[in-house]
């Protein structure tokens, strides 16, 4: 299913169970900068029901890649041009979490995007599905696999990203 609420997942799970089919996946938006699935009980319900979360927009449309910063002259194109998160004030708000992601990236020899994706994987039963416009971006995304942030680092990022709950 896609974008199902906690209650919709429960209903779907009950209906499917009558046919002996498990509800396997709910595709929802989830990232360090979009954590509403936690406050709306979607993540908790998914864990309770054994449903995997397929996280779309896990890099928050590129905000978590390190490509954009308040100092950068790198301006987004398309719809992101009018998105306030990509304006100087929005980028200043996320700068602290990006700095920590960059520090962790240096520690693990990973990019901020790989750190952001690894944080999602650390949530358990969450599979991020990042977009990629190029083969290089796809390879970079794959670099989120095969290593793990330490528990305290996962917690640090969780605490820093609470404003986006």
Describe this structure in words.
This protein is mostly helical and 165 residues long. It is 45% helix and 8% strand. It contains seven helices and three strands; from the N terminus they run H-E-H-H-E-H-H-E-H-H. It has helices spanning 6-18, 36-39, 42-49, 88-108, 112-121, 135-142, 151-160; strands spanning 25-29, 52-56, 126-129. Strands 1-2-3 form a three-stranded parallel β-sheet. Helix 4 (88-108) packs across helix 5. It is globular, with a radius of gyration of 17 Å. It starts with 5 loop residues before the first helix and ends in a 5-residue tail after the last helix. The model has no long low-confidence stretch (mean pLDDT 94).
| Spatial order of strands in the largest sheet | 1-2-3
Helix residue percentage: 40-55%
Shape: globular
Q: What gyration radius follows from the Cα positions, in whole Å?
A: 17 Å
Q: Low-confidence parts, pLDDT < 50 over ≥5 residues? A: none
- Category from helices, strands and their pairing: mainly alpha
The termini sit apart by 22 Å
Biggest sheet layout:
3 strands, parallel
Rounded average pLDDT: 94
Order of helices and strands: HEHHEHHEHH
Number of helices: 7
What portion of residues belong to β-strands?
A: 5-15%
Number of strands: 3
Question: Which features does this protein show?
Answer:
mainly alpha; 3-stranded parallel sheet; 3 strands; 45% helix; globular
């Amino acid at each position: 299913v896609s974008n199902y609420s906690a209650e919709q997942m429960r209903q779907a799970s009950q209906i499917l169970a009558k046919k002996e089919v498990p509800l396997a996946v709910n595709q929802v938006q989830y990232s360090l900068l979009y954590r509403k699935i936690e406050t709306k009980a979607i993540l908790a319900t998914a864990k309770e029901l054994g449903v995997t979360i397929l996280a779309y927009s896990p890099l928050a449309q590129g905000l978590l890649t390190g490509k954009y910063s308040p100092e950068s002259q790198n301006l987004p194109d398309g719809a992101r041009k009018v998105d306030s998160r990509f304006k100087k004030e929005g980028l200043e708000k996320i700068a602290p979490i990006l700095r920590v992601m960059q520090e962790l990236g240096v520690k693990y020899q990973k990019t901020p995007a790989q750190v952001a994706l690894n944080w999602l994987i650390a949530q358990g039963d969450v599979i991020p599905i990042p977009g990629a416009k190029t083969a290089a971006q796809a390879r970079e995304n794959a670099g989120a696999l095969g290593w793990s942030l330490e528990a305290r680092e996962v917690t640090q990022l969780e605490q820093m990203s609470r404003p986006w709950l």
